[in-house]
Amino acid sequence: MIKERIQKSLNQQLNAELYSSYEYLAMSAYFESESLSGFARWMQLQSQEEYGHAIKFYNYLLQAGGKINFAPIDAPKVGWTGAEEVFKDTYKHEQKVTKSIYELVDLTLEEKDHATNIFLQWFVTEQVEEESTALKILDRIKLIADNKSGLLYLDHELGTRAAAN
Ligand code: FEO
After folding, report:
1. Is 23 in the pocket of ligand 1 (CB under 6 A)?
2. Is the CB of residue 38 less than 8 Å from the CB of residue 141?
């Protein structure tokens, strides 16, 4: 049976992943309003990926004999000054998620919960990719600076992102 502290923290992470999904959907809506449909598609797929992360926590909690405790999901930010600000927020957000995953891993070591520790390893690896992807896109946006053609080229490229299986 899963320990109370672990159950509570996994439920908090479930909520955080749902918030991530909500936030990226808000960013997608922002890009739609800016007629940057490639960025919008990329963010919508990112939102779906985050929902998938939430479902991993949901399924694991149930499988481990835990209870699901839904909590309100905070409203995401609305309105950005441009793609650079959006991806700055994305990178910052992913760094925050990494920190919370690491704290969860620390907790499993404290509680000697090896099963949850193994479950979380997937997220540890995933966060390396999440941070690296956000930073790469941010760096490219900075390179483009005020060049509109560059922005449209990147928009086209991000629009080719494949949906996750
Ligand atoms: Fe679920 Fe982007 O971390």
Report:
1. no
2. no
Ligand 1 in contact with 41 (CB < 6 A)?
no
Confidence of residue 164 (pLDDT cuts 50, 70, 90): confident
Instruction: Kindly tell me if the per-residue pLDDT of 165 is higher than 80.
Output: no
Q: Does 93 contact ligand 1 (Cβ within 6 A)?
A: no
Q: Where are the domains of the chain?
A: 4-158
CA-closest candidate to residue 6, choices 156, 125, 108, 94: 108
pLDDT tens, position by position, 17-75: 999 999 999 999 999 999 999 999 999 999 999 999 999 999 999 999 999 999 999 99
Homologous superfamily, domain 4-158 = Ferritin, core subunit, four-helix bundle (1.20.1260.10)
Three-state SS for 9-33 is HHHHHHHHHHHHHHHHHHHHHHHHH
* 107 Cα distance to chain centroid: 21
- 144's enclosing H/E stretch is helix 114-144
- What's the whole-number mean pLDDT along residues 87-91? 98
